[in-house]
Amino acid sequence: MDTLTISCMDRRLNGILDKENDGSTIMLRNAGANASALRDSIKDIISGNIGKIKLMAHSDCGAMKVVHSALKEGVKTSDYVYQNLVKQFDGKPFGTRKELEELNEKLQMEELKAISNGIEVESNFVDLSKYHFEEPNALIAVFTYHSTDKYEDLCKRAGLDTEATYFIQASSIEEVYSDIEIAVTKLSIKHIVLMAKKPSEYRPVYADMQKLKMKEFMEGTTVQFIKL
């Protein structure tokens, strides 16, 4: 049976997630391993041959920095980012970003257990302070549908730098517009790739690209369509 892993889009997790993937691990990723925003994708996937659901949130999380600055410092976010990410933390007790990251793990685990339909759910929090990462010159973000593909393989086939690439994965692009917005407006990523991994994805991913280009937050951002 397959494992469904929900994790953050952070580029630093790519190699760590690849080591977790034995070829039967389906990956969903967004800003902050935000299971509540991926509810539709999760429900769709667990209707198949899933034996375990794994949450892999992490330390030094950019999404949690967005939440902390919005709720503790009054930094404004768009309504869409607030509704899809920030709102679930509003009114909850936390002070430091570390406490917020702990709260995030708790909230996402509660969400997964509520929708798991009896499937085993576990958490594997990743402490990024235990790893060393190079700082790339330019960052990019990739949207692609969920799959069991390893990120090193996808990047090699697409000619991308694995250590510079944020991966956003869901069953539909509509679920992750707020995550792409965070990549563009908070991480200053100016190049977004929409990746189709097989012929059956070519047409829908191309249609996704056209819809994404119309979003106001994409102004000044380049979009590329890659067929593998």
Question: What do you see in this structure?
Answer:
The chain is an alpha/beta fold. The protein has one domain (2-62, 121-227). 37% of the residues lie in helices and 21% in strands. The protein is built from eight helices and eight strands. The protein has helices at residues 14-20, 39-46, 62-72, 79-86, 97-115, 151-158, 177-185, 199-213; strands spanning 2-8, 25-30, 50-56, 120-123, 140-145, 165-170, 191-196, 222-227. A four-stranded parallel beta sheet has the order 2-1-3-4, with helices on one face. Strand 1, helix 1 (14-20) and strand 2 (25-30) form a beta-alpha-beta unit. The two termini are 26 Å apart.
Task: Encode the helix/strand succession as letters.
Answer: EHEHEHHHEEHEHEHE
- What Rg is obtained from the alpha carbons, in whole angstroms? 16 Å
How many strand elements? Answer: 8
Average pLDDT reading? 97
Strand composition percent: 15-25%
Please summarize the sheet with the most strands.
Answer: 4 strands, parallel
Runs in which pLDDT lies below 50 for 5 or more consecutive residues are none
Count of DSSP-assigned helices: 8
Count of individual domains: 1
Kindly, what is the distance between the CA atoms of the first and last residues, rounded to a whole number of angstroms?
A: 26 Å
Structural class: alpha/beta
Helical content (DSSP H or I, runs of 4+): 25-40%
**What is the subunit arrangement here?**
single chain
- Outline type: globular
Q: In order across it, which strands form the biggest sheet?
A: 2-1-3-4
